[in-house]
Amino acid sequence: MDTISVTTRIGEKDLTLETGRLAKQADGAVLVNEGSNAVLVTACMSEEIAEDVDFFPLTVQYQEKFYAAGKIPGGFIKREGKPSEKEILVSRLIDRSIRPLFPDNFFNEVQIIATTFSADQVYSTDVLGIIGASAALAISKIPFLEIVGGVRVAYKNGEFLINPAIADVEESQLDIVVAGTRRGITMVEGGAKEISPEILLKALEIAEENINKIIDLIEELVDKVKPEKLEIPPLESNLDESLKKEIIDFATPLIREANINPDKKQRKINIEKAFETTFQNFGITEASESYKEVKKLLEDLEYNIVRNMILFDGKRPDGRSYDEIRPISIELDLFDNVHGSALFTRGQTQSLAIVTLGTSSDVQYVDSIEETEPKRFMLHYNFPPFSTGEVKKSLVTSRREIGHGHLAQRAIEALLPSEEEFPYTIRIVSEVLESNGSSSMATVCSSSLSLMCTGVPFKKHVAGIAMGLVWDKESGKYAILSDIQGVEDHYGDMDFKVAGTRDGITAFQMDVKTAGLPKEILKEALEQAWKGKEYILDKMEAVINSPRKSLSRNAPKISVVNIPVSEIGNVIGPSGRVIKKIMAETDVTIAIEDDGRVMISGKDYENLEKASKIINHIVNGLKIGDRIKGRVTRIEDYGVFVELVPGQIGLLHRSNFKLRKHPKELFKVGSTVEVKVADIDEKKRISLVEV
Q1: 274-300 pLDDT per residue, tens
Q2: Please, which residues have CB within 8 angstroms of residue 448's CB and are 6 or more apart in sequence?
Q3: Which residues contact 77 (CB under 8 A, 6 or more apart)?
Q4: pTM for this one?
Q5: How far apart are CA 143 and CA 124, in angstroms?
Q6: Domains of the chain, with CATH numbers?
């Protein structure tokens, strides 16, 4: 195939899609160019379906090569290794954008690999991965129901920006990535600084306009390639239609009754009993030829029963109304030795958030192709198997855990104090102890509560809520559900998470299981989510409504001293001798930044004050009248030499002793003495008086 390319203008840059030159053995390969950025995305499909696979095995891998930015990876090995957090997050963005758009009866394994070949470090390449994945699938033989486009929208100083520069994103009030089809949005992910729902909806509207332009471009490429799509044969049925009807008639009341239960584990037991009763009634065992088909029939029946109960009977499985929030309980200060903790329970979902405060030496450094600053705030989300009563291997952090933690972090970080206000590194760990839906939003709530009870000057509470949707497209009837539980997420058409304060939205995530979501439904869901968020904030503020006045007694104490950059060497001293001596004498830890900020941390404020005074004396010099506790370093017949601060020694003459005795009778080398600076001569020699 000859090289084929198409181009359009998106935002401030030309977007070009090219195929036929690179990776020609892949089922689909598209090089996406935007300015000087380039990402190659390939799509490959297995020829055979793996045995006993009853799900769609899609894997997505986004990988950034350091050579793309003219860099060599750090570390000892000097090559790219396991996926970074950013690569995992972008892989999830691509996966979530395309996963709903494959046929239901398609079970061949599909692998998407997006590789960054060129990165200018000015514009991000993540959105190019979504566009390339859609284009590669569209021009391949792989069945793909609808073309999807992806775009980033930022809101800065009253203006909406399309695929903006990284610097603009960092200064913006809103940053979202949106993917969608002609029929509507399929995926949204983003963070904000307390923006209004109206701004968010306008951003989504602008995103849709540009998504349609991208879809036009991909369709132009498809028209030129003219791919032959794989035909997916319909699933063969060995069940007689009359037997199907008998099974459905028998199982319907059992499954319906089994689903009406607020307890997740009991509901699962009830469903298993309903299935087993049906199998026994019709003489079907796991050895039967029809077992898998009957099981699939019952699963589809349960899917329809749950949806119809919600949609047409107005009944949720746990008996709540559409906009009702599950019972909430909150506990603070659960453990003695941590810096702060909060337990947030909503229904059968429970998050324990624990805050740890550290110094500037605890920041996280990230090796990336983009220029990034050290991270002084981290939020880690853990989802152990016992939270759902299961037994699984949990040796490494999963992609889901990284994604949920990132969403909660975006919800919280806009309200954190600046480094100047609060010079601590902050780590929050959310331990999900029980899960029945919406654990990432429970993490937002527990994190907000734990920050306040730790004494971090957190500006205001942030709460999160997960919304669901059941939508019958034939009748047009739909139900928007507040605070969804697991079964409603599993059988619903949307998982829509919103976090924010009373004044605005701070994080937003949405995944749609259908081809697209009309903005009218989205607007209504956002309005209902806002009301739910306000209710949750009421509950949180009733327990603690402002940060505690003082930090936890377990937290390190930090003091900041600003010194001229020219004096950094004097404070450090030759081979670090001066700074090491200060730390040893005062039992503190000192870190000096390149801009002259000296971060002093320790267990008590008295030692911090002592270290601060020593540093100030080194930088500003001693003055006549200064009183200091020094250490005797040498004893002579005429007096003793006293080290006042590391590197500065004065003479305490015997005529200035409090007692008229020989120096050796009064002092020993290493003993401390309180003195006052009596004089400093033109050679900066210091004379002392004992006080």
Answers
A1: 999 999 999 999 888 889 899 999 999
A2: 412, 458, 461, 462, 463, 540
A3: none
A4: 0.89
A5: 29
A6: 4-225 (3.30.230.70), 243-312 (1.10.10), 328-543 (3.30.230.70), 556-620 (3.30.1370.10), 623-691 (2.40.50.140)
